[in-house]
Amino acid sequence: MEEDVRRTYAERFPVSTVQQLVRPGVGAGLADTFRARFLLKLLVRKELKVRYRGSVLGLLWSYVKPGVQFLVFYLALGVFLGLNKGTENYAVYLFSGIILINFFTEALGNAARSIVGNGSLIKKIYLPRELFPVASVWVSGVHFFPQLVVLVAACVFSGWHPSVLQLAAAVGGFVIVALLATGLGLFFGAVNVYFRDFENIVDLLLMVVTWASPVLYVWTMVRNTLGAGFFAVYQANPITIAVEIFHYAFWYPTTSGTAQLPPHLVTIWLPVGLAVSLVVVFIGQFTFRRLEGRFAQEL
Question: What per-residue confidence (pLDDT) applies to 2?
Answer without folding.
Answer: 54
